[in-house]
Every structure is written in structure tokens, then in C-alpha cells.
């Protein structure tokens, strides 16, 4: 089973060729970060134009590197949501045209499922049931998986996503876009106890998240210092905020594990690349004899390989998309 995976939901044009769900033959990620950096974030109109320019060369190069042609493919998997509508449309229309012309099936993939399935590409002995902590630029979800494709959302953010909060705080600190990696790097020279930022835990036992108030606490600290003409230590601010976000994510993940009793936790999404989050969960979960699984950093942020992997499992289920597949910008995780 040879699957071409295509991802264009935000600002990465990416494609991958994956054989039998485990053998990644080629993978290209064309990032638009440099283009959007000067605006301090992704500009949707520019993103879709860039995708239109890049999708064909990216797919051609991915197939060439894998040494396959369209006729060697079993199916084409594409992200159809959630994401920016103009960006999604480029991938969806491109994949439809290619699959139709090649006479092979189309697989419509939920981007959030894709993030989680990055784990199955690199780890082949993952056992169900399991919990997944999805922490990305637009989402923060705790999910219980009974089996492939069978899952239930246990909790999600009521306001900002974890990555979004990191990006906004980084921007306020003058650290640039994307903010998560900048916060991580700047934190290295800082004291995580210098500032006491709140940890929003919500009601006892709640598996929901709220990062907006925590973000505002940093912005308020910055503003009141500015009014007094004081300058604050940026590495201390970054380290203290990173610690606050990680504390909440770890606390909620541990609560979900206690409530469900599952013995495996998957980390997924761009923030899953965060070193403090990985190390803290590694330590806490080894104490509890729970297995922690996370993808390589490059497979945490948006990529085509994760879409090909999720596509492989959809293919096994015979879960094909109709030719009328459309972009669904607000697509969420369906629950069983
Ligand atoms: P979504 O997947 O929810 O639609 P997205 O695709 O924009 O949103 P991802 O690509 O999964 O999000 O992740 C990007 C986010 O990950 C950004 O918010 C970025 O700051 C964050 N991020 C990336 N690397 C790190 C890191 N090392 N530490 C913390 N955050 C990080
Ligand atoms: Mg991106
Ligand atoms: Fe993403």
C-alpha cells in the first residue's frame, strides 16, 4: 500500500510517500515561515497563494525522491480541515485532481488526527486503549482512544490553544514568530521561578484548559512595568511562562490518566516538540509506569508524513472520500 500524503492546512506545503504505514520513502516540507515572519504571523491570503505556487513542485519532487510515479500509488490522502480555507482548498483540489486522473481513491484526513498519527509512523508497538494530548497552534485536546479511529474528546481549551498563547506571549516579548521555539530557546537563560504566573486549572477534575488568562497575566506584567519605566528580564519572563504552561499541560494529562486508567500517553502537535514538556512528562510518567510516546520534532509541526500515516489507517478501514470532498475550515474531532 503506497500512499501519497498532502498537507496544506496552514503555512506548510508538504507531501510524503509512505509504504505500508511504516516505510517513509520521501518527505518534503516547504515552509512559508520566512514569508510570514515579517508580518508577525500567518497571512491567510499570502498562504494560499504560496500553496498554489508550491504544491505541484513539492508533489513532483516527493514522488521523484521516492522513485514512484502516480501509477504506483494506491491512494492519495489529503488534509481537508481544520485550517485556513484558502490553504486547505489548494491541497484538496490538487489531491482530487491527481487521484481522479490517476484512477486511485482519495482519503480525506482530519489534520488533528494527522498530528496524533505522527506517533504511529515512528512507533509500531503502540497499544490501545490510550490517551492523547494534542497541543498545537490552534488546538489543545485531551482524547481517549479505544482503537484506531475510535476516540472520545475528554477535554479541550475554552479559549486560547497552548501554542497560540506561546505565540502571543513571544510576540509581546519581541521574540518573533513562531513563538513556541523562541520561548523555549530564550528560556534557557532564564529563571522559571522569577515570575509567579497563574496556572489555570478550572474546576477540580476538569480536563478542559484555559490559557487566555495566563497569557494576559504576562501582558499585564509587561504593561505595568512599562508604565513605571522598568525593564523586565525577558529570559525570566519566557522561562516563567513556559513553566506555567507546561505545569498545566502535565497536571491535566496526569488527571486524564488517573481518570481513565490507561497506560499509554501520546503527545502530538507543534507544542509536543517542547523540550520541557517532553522531559517533565517523561519523568512523571515513568514514576507511574505509564508509557509516553512522542514524535520526532519535525513530525510534531505540520507535515505530509503524518497525513499519509493517518491515510494508511483510513485505507485499511475502507474509509474513502467522495469526489465532492470539500475543505472544512472548522472541522473538529468526531467522537464515537
Ligand atoms: P493546528 O494543528 O491546531 O491547526 P497549527 O497547525 O498551526 O495548528 P502546529 O503546526 O501543530 O499548529 O504547531 C505550531 C505551534 O507549535 C505554534 O504555536 C508553535 O509556536 C508551537 N511550537 C513549535 N515548536 C515548539 C516548541 N519547541 N516549544 C513550544 N511550542 C512549539
Ligand atoms: Mg506552521
Ligand atoms: Fe497543525
From TrEMBL:
The keyword Cytoplasm applies. It is an enzyme of class 2 (transferase). It is found in: Cytoplasm. Residues 24-308 form the Gcp-like domain. GO terms for biological process: tRNA threonylcarbamoyladenosine modification. Fe cation binds at residues 111, 115, 302. One of its GO terms (cellular component) is cytoplasm. Substrate binds at residues 134-138, 167, 180, 274. Its cofactor is Fe(2+). Its EC number is 2.3.1.234. Keywords: Acyltransferase, Cytoplasm, Hydrolase, Iron, Metal-binding, Transferase, tRNA processing. One of its GO terms (molecular function) is hydrolase activity. Pfam families: TsaD (PF00814). InterPro entries: ATPase_NBD (IPR043129), Gcp-like_dom (IPR000905), KAE1/TsaD (IPR017861), TsaD (IPR022450). It catalyses: L-threonylcarbamoyladenylate + adenosine(37) in tRNA = N(6)-L-threonylcarbamoyladenosine(37) in tRNA + AMP + H(+). Required for the formation of a threonylcarbamoyl group on adenosine at position 37 (t(6)A37) in tRNAs that read codons beginning with adenine. Is involved in the transfer of the threonylcarbamoyl moiety of threonylcarbamoyl-AMP (TC-AMP) to the N6 group of A37, together with TsaE and TsaB. TsaD likely plays a direct catalytic role in this reaction. Belongs to the KAE1 / TsaD family. This is tRNA N6-adenosine threonylcarbamoyltransferase. The gene is tsaD.
Amino acid at each position: 500500500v503506497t500512499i501519497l500524503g498532502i498537507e496544506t492546512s496552514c503555512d506548510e506545503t508538504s507531501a510524503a510517500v509512505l509504504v505500508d504505514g511504516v516505510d517513509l520513502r520521501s518527505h518534503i516540507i516547504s515552509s512559508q515561515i520566512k514569508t510570514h515572519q515579517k508580518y508577525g504571523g500567518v497571512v491567510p491570503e499570502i498562504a494560499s497563494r504560496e500553496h498554489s505556487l508550491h504544491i505541484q513542485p513539492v508533489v513532483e519532487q516527493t514522488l521523484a525522491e521516492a522513485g514512484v510515479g502516480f501509477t504506483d500509488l494506491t491512494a492519495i490522502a489529503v488534509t481537508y480541515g481544520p485550517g485556513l480555507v484558502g490553504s486547505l482548498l489548494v491541497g484538496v483540489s490538487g489531491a482530487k485532481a491527481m487521484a481522479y486522473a490517476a484512477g486511485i481513491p482519495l482519503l480525506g484526513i482530519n489534520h488533528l488526527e494527522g498530528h496524533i498519527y505522527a506517533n504511529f509512523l515512528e512507533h509500531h508497538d503502540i497499544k490501545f486503549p490510550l490517551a492523547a494530548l494534542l497541543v498545537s497552534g490552534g488546538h489543545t485536546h485531551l482524547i481517549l482512544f479505544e482503537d484506531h479511529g475510535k476516540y472520545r474528546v475528554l477535554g479541550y481549551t475554552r479559549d486560547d490553544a497552548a501554542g497560540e498563547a506561546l505565540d502571543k506571549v513571544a510576540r509581546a516579548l519581541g521574540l518573533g514568530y513562531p513563538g513556541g521555539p523562541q520561548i523555549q530557546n530564550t528560556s534557557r537563560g532564564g529563571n522559571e521561578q522569577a515570575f509567579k504566573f497563574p496556572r489555570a486549572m478550572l474546576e477540580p477534575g476538569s480536563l478542559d484548559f484555559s490559557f487566555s488568562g495566563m497569557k494576559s497575566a504576562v501582558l499585564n506584567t509587561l504593561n505595568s512595568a512599562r508604565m513605571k519605566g522598568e525593564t523586565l528580564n525577558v529570559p525570566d519572563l519566557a522561562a516563567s511562562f513556559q513553566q506555567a504552561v507546561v505545569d498545566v499541560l502535565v497536571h491535566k494529562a496526569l488527571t486524564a490518566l488517573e481518570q481513565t486508567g490507561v497506560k499509554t500517553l501520546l503527545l502530538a502537535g507543534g507544542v509536543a516538540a517542547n523540550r520541557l514538556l517532553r522531559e517533565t512528562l517523561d519523568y512523571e510518567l515513568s514514576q507511574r509506569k505509564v508509557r509516553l510516546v512522542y514524535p520526532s520534532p519535525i513530525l510534531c509541526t505540520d507535515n505530509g508524513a503524518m497525513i499519509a500515516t493517518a491515510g494508511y489507517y483510513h485505507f485499511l478501514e475502507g474509509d474513502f472520500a467522495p469526489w465532492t470532498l470539500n475543505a472544512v475550515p472548522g472541522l473538529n474531532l468526531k467522537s464515537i
